[in-house]
Amino acid sequence: MSELTHASAPKRFVGGQLLGSSQLVLGVILAVLCIAISIAAPQFYSEANIIAILRQCALVLIVASGMTMLIITAEVDLSVGASLAFVGCIGMAVLNSTHSLTLGLLAALAFAGGVGLFNGLVVTRLRVNSLIATIGTMMMLQGGVYLFTREAVQNHNQLASFTDLGAGYVGAVPVPVILAALIFVVAYVTLRFTTLGRYLYAVGANEKAVRLSGLRSERLKLFAFVLTGLCVGVAGMILSSLMNAGQPTAGRGFELTVIAAVILGGTSLLGGRGSLFGTLLGVLVLKVIDNGIIILGWNQDLQMVVPGVVIILATYLDIIRNKANVR
Amino acid sequence: MSVDFLHPGEGGAIDTSVPALELRGIDKRFPGVVALDNVDFSLEPGKIHALMGENGAGKSTLIKIMAGVYGKDAGTIRMRGHEVDIKSPRDSLKEGIKVVFQEIALISEFTVAENIFLEGYPTGRAGSIDWKKIRADSAALFNRIGFNVDPAARTGSLPVSQQQMVEIARALAHEARVVVMDEPTSSLTPNEVSLLFTVIRRLASLGIAVVYVSHKLDEVFEIADTVTVLRDGRHISTRPIGEHTNDTLIQDMIGRRIDNLFPRQRGPAGSRVALSVENLSTAKKLSDVSFEARAGEVLGFFGLMGAGRTELAKAIVGYDPITAGTITVDGSRLVPHDTRTGVKLGIGLLTEDRKSEGLMGELPVYQNASLASLGAFARLGFVDKAKEHKAVQDYVDRFRIKTPSLFQQVKNLSGGNQQKVLIARWLMRGLKVIVVDEPTRGIDVGAKSEIFALIDRLAGEGLAVVMMTSEMPELLGLADRIAVMCEGRLTVIMSREEATQEKILNAAIG
Questions:
Q1: Which CATH architecture has domain A59-326?
Q2: Which residue in chain B has the smallest CA separation from A201?
């Protein structure tokens, strides 16, 4: 029996630890996309366009970094889109009344972190399924933002530092891209090299085993929820800076883009499996598709259709790959 | 479904010349285990036939073959003289065999009447379901077995005893010739048991052959006409109940000698008390359990199914809540009652359910092994992987864990090797008391003795081992002292020397 088990066991992937083979599939998809688009439209490879793509990626990547951790613990947060809009309005309102970017940022982080904490408590204490709990939160936030403000909160101060948050550059690189890279690296290091990261995987892989090992599984999940919330806080402020206003209607469908990128990157909704590097590739694939559709002058409604097809295709390829590994 | 089930052969003579169901030469193998070996089993119409044996004797496998849940590897099945081929639960029902499992298989959201006619609703004109007829027929069925349940009641709202009646009524609706009751009294009160017995006798009087699976001696003496005993997958005896006494039945059930498969290496147990449990109770199962376990000893807990061993195991490590009592590990109280405190004090559980409570199947061997001790390999929150891998590799070598590498997903290992990884998880953490629950469940015969040797070594290294088991050889081969549980209570604690299988089984039956 045991000999058989050994023979059929999958080999450790060859391309080093960085590129798990699910990322390999995605990497190939990304490469094919880039080549195909640049053949059809050479301006795809202009510096301006690459910067534009990266800027597009930044918001999604920031929230997807937190979301990857959360999904690895086998939970999910659907309220990030609604929270993103609300956060922008609150941050802008605080900025207007205090004339302080720091206080505005703190307010945004406090609010978004609070939303995460609320989600986490509902899930871990009341034991409501996270899908349902965060749909509830999403609805509360979507309605709640209109109780807070009927229309967009305009930027009254025009603080230069606030405008830079979304539109500024360091050298040739947009500030949001730098922030996204920073958050990505911290999250990456946390997941890969720290005990905390290992516990997040463990809790997603088997929560009961984690509890029996004397660890507080609820705290770990709570942490992931709050972290996701804080990422939304950062993203919300960048977004309101870009729009020069807090828009209550912003962020519709944002949660789906984020979750799609994470799933595309090979993170399992069942928990315990996934990587931030995959998420990065997932975000890039989605945004390159977006960009390509615009550059090629296709009907923009395809921006929703094509990623839908890609997600199903990539997940299917992943299943085939897994089966091939097991045989 | 017609109405003729309401009055077939009632009151008339029952033809007993042909067996209602006859199984001959049944073999069933699972990987590494012979579950049934050339077993014969024959049922007379109108008789109540008890099927007895220890846990693992093959009772469940046999009735699952009758029910079509498992296929047989060899042998023949005849219904009233005709050979039949049972490939699925559906075939089994069609042949007139109805098995009432411990886990009631009713749809709890449906009404009683809906459940009874689940496989074929009577329809009126235009194909609409004839609800009136369903209710009336249900009521008629209950009338026949002499039991009253409201056909319109939601099934889930009924107590287990009444749900059993619904299952029995369902058997009648299917014109069952054979009704199998699997440990039907395990969750019934004495009153409900006597009601059930009345109904079972009524079934027999209708000419139905009843199989009564149980390990409760008193019940079998009360209800059965004939007793068949299985042991280690083999047919041991079939006799009229009148030829049996308590002693002869127990003899048949346990007859084998316990081979000394597990040579004891460790020295005598120490005297220091490592775990002390006083007056422990839980909401559902345990009541007033007290015992002590000493460093270097294996304290074995025996009990039949549902005796409360797993509940006790989970309660004393802080996993499940308790309602009363105190737990003291190495001199410190387990307060607050959670696993975090438990592990800190040095008590941990090796679970019986490796897959759902122990392993992180998707994750590699090394991460599974180091889960409880990861903090020891960390500096400022960062894992020192080299140190971690070295420590895990050390256990892989010492325990001879067969894995291609530390990075292998643990789900790809065999059961025995998975168990060793989980034992390593606790040893890397360093415990004073380890609670092992059914340590060899689902493990190949060959690997079993390795696990035994490991447990022996744990005690030898000074841990107190509390071992929950339903396997006699395991118990007698490993334990220094033997505690027996029955229905959530501790009935007796005896030393290995004074323990005999008869004494243990008697205490377990209560």
A1: Orthogonal Bundle (1.10)
A2: B363
